[in-house]
Amino acid sequence: MSFLELAGLRRNYGPVTAVSGVDLAVPSGSRTAIVGPSGCGKTTLLRLIAGFERPDCGSIELDGAMLAGPDIFVPAYKRPIGLVAQDGALFPHLSIAANIGFGIPRGAPDRETQVSKLLRLVGLDDGFLHRRPHQLSGGQQQRVALARALARKPRLMLLDEPFSALDTSLRAAMRKMVAGVLEAAGVTTILVTHDQEEALSFADQVAVMRAGALMQAGSPRDLYLRPRNRMVAEFLGEAIILPARIEGGCAHCVLGAVRVDSDALRETAEILLRPEQIELEPGNADGANAVVRESEFSGPTCTLVVQVANDAGEASALVLRRPATGSPQVGTSARLTVSGSAHLLD
């Protein structure tokens, strides 16, 4: 049995369906990332789990206890759930110590010790205790918000795009710090984000939503390499999707015969390759099947548009990224080869 079980969860706002029959299981102690384009329903789903919204139908069960279901609804303040919002949502008129201590009973004999311990847990020292939120950087405010959420000793932590307002250089470090803190505390975590890289690097399980529905859930590696459909494939990273004929374990496409992860027989199909699977060998040697048509420099990498054609005269333009050092120039002939297998899309 999973720690958190969502079954048939639905939420409507008038004629608009924000969440449509979502089923999701979250294992204890794991980190799950819910991703999808803006307006797909991921934040509404988070609010349903937190108890800020009541589902129109379906159920939410946390470690065997029903939080929402037919004739049952446990309000947010009674749920053992912590929340870190996008902007931290710290109380501006309170000190950092008072913000963290907000979730600790005032009569607790070791209240100050707990506050100090939580502050150190998120990588800040006691010198911050008497500051106000406006005296902290964005990253420091998010650390305090996490400490405040942990003060309530939640069994489930919800993170609502907590890194989106941070500088790019700080986001990766913050993700790693937060993941480490929550893992050490043994807290099951759900992260809502629109950042694919963030979801893939942070989570043990990724759930992709579209138009209120859950499209696919699974490990980051499985979803990246074996997405169920084109939408999931393109949302989780750069994708090369080619028409193909499937026969004998191979996809016959503009790149020739490419191994495919299916023994199906299909006259018309679509296959997925990730750009890093395609090797590009510049030169005019025999076997060249492509020409570099465009090259865009962006510092450490170059984005290349490569036109490739097969013996049947079928042509296609592929977008590849390569290290800028030694990247082929426009007009260069090249040979393209594929590493690994293509994935057959539904």
From TrEMBL:
InterPro entries named in the record: AAA+_ATPase (IPR003593), ABC_SmlMolc_Importer (IPR050093), ABC_transporter-like_ATP-bd (IPR003439), ABC_transporter-like_CS (IPR017871), ABC_transpr_FbpC (IPR015853), Mo/tungstate-bd_C_term_dom (IPR008995), P-loop_NTPase (IPR027417), Transp-assoc_OB_typ2 (IPR013611)
GO terms for MF: ATP binding
Keywords: ATP-binding, Cell inner membrane, Cell membrane, Ion transport, Iron, Iron transport, Membrane, Nucleotide-binding, Translocase, Transport
Translocase as UniProt keyword: yes
Keyword Iron among UniProt keywords: yes
The organism's place on the tree of life at top rank: Bacteria
Span of domain ABC transporter: 4-236
Record family assignment: Belongs to the ABC transporter superfamily.
Name recorded for this polypeptide: Iron(III) transport system ATP-binding protein
Originating species: Aquamicrobium ahrensii
